[in-house]
């Protein structure tokens, strides 16, 4: 046995490049993915890291500034306002969205619901609808003077509300678009998880006299914990990258007093409006760090909650 192992160790090993050459046809078939990834994935990431140490307007020569832009970021009030806005929008959209999605999935999985295929498609349509079109519709609903919602409010004798002139209401409008768009998507994910739960557990609970609410809180939620963790993480990542909704609704400045200015919108403004591509790259890397840390925090919280 030892002699066999010694002979295997002493066998000549092929170099990586020689092995690639011998199997070049196989590597040729999978090369399009890696070529596209290198051009549109890895290169932009590395180039943005390089740009973060440069001062560049996109046309002229680059000027190396080292860590100056990172230091400026720490004292940039507008950046921290964008961070605060993004977290507030995430908070007021995520909780009702995931709770609503869980309730919808639970009802769609119930035996008394008919035409389940229709409801699944209907709830998912919101996710495939154009974000720009949805934002324009919401803008017509929440318009300050001629919005549909204000029209309904005035018909019952109340004063119209300036939805897009209030710091908090602007965030509420953006959050409502996020909830409308992603609740159905998360409901479908939860529904897939629910269908993996054995019906025997629900039947046993019914025999023991458990109500539908007790089944929901003591069977459904504990067994869906991994999927809930997944949706929380994905929602966190998506909410930190909100761009189209505030940009179409409020413009590049983020509305009155920058109340709707998100991190991604601020990054876009720095790069493509103010032509500060170096500083925009710094903001993008700051966004990456924020998403990583906040996702880790959410994961820890959900894990501890589930352990209880």
TrEMBL record:
InterPro entries: ABC_transporter_permease (IPR051393), MetI-like (IPR000515), MetI-like_sf (IPR035906)
Protein name stated in the entry: Cytochrome c biogenesis protein
PANTHER family listed in its UniProt record: ABC TRANSPORTER PERMEASE PROTEIN (PTHR30193), INNER MEMBRANE ABC TRANSPORTER PERMEASE PROTEIN YCJO (PTHR30193:SF37)
Assigned protein family: Belongs to the binding-protein-dependent transport system permease family.
Transmembrane segments: 25-53, 87-109, 121-143, 216-237, 277-299
Keywords (A to Z) from UniProt: Cell membrane, Membrane, Transmembrane, Transmembrane helix, Transport
One Pfam family in the UniProt entry: BPD_transp_1
Membrane-protein topology: Multi-pass membrane protein
Boundaries of every ABC transmembrane type-1 domain copy: 83-298
Superkingdom assignment: Bacteria
Primary localization: membrane
Protein source organism: Lederbergia ruris
Subcellular location: Cell membrane
């Amino acid at each position: 046995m030892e002699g066999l192992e010694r002979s295997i160790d002493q066998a000549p090993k092929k170099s990586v490049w020689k092995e690639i050459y011998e199997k070049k046809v196989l590597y040729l078939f999978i090369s399009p993915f890696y070529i596209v990834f290198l051009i549109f994935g890895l290169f932009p990431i590395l180039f943005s890291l390089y740009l973060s140490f440069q001062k560049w307007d996109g046309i002229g020569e680059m000027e190396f500034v080292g860590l100056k832009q990172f230091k400026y970021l720490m004292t940039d009030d507008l950046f921290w306002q964008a961070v605060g806005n993004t977290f507030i929008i995430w908070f007021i959209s995520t909780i009702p969205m995931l709770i609503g999605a869980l309730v919808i999935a639970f009802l769609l999985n119930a035996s008394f619901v008919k035409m389940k295929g229709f409801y699944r498609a209907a709830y998912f349509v919101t996710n495939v609808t154009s974000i720009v079109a949805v934002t324009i519709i919401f803008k017509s609903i929440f318009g300050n003077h001629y919005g549909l919602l204000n029209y309904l409010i005035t018909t019952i004798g109340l004063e119209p509300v300036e939805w897009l002139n209030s710091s908090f209401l602007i965030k509420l409008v953006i959050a409502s678009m996020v909830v409308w768009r992603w609740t159905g998507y998360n409901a479908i994910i939860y529904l897939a998880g629910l269908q993996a739960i054995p019906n025997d557990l629900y039947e046993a609970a019914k025999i023991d006299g458990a109500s539908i609410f007790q089944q929901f809180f003591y069977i459904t939620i504990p067994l869906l914990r991994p999927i809930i963790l997944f949706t929380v993480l994905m929602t966190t990542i998506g909410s930190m990258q909100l761009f189209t909704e505030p940009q179409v609704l409020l413009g590049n400045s983020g509305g009155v007093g920058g109340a709707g200015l998100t991190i991604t919108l601020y990054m876009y403004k720095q790069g493509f409006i103010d032509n500060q591509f170096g500083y925009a790259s710094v903001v993008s890397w700051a966004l990456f760090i924020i998403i990583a840390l906040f996702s880790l925090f959410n994961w820890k919280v959900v894990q501890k909650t589930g352990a209880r």
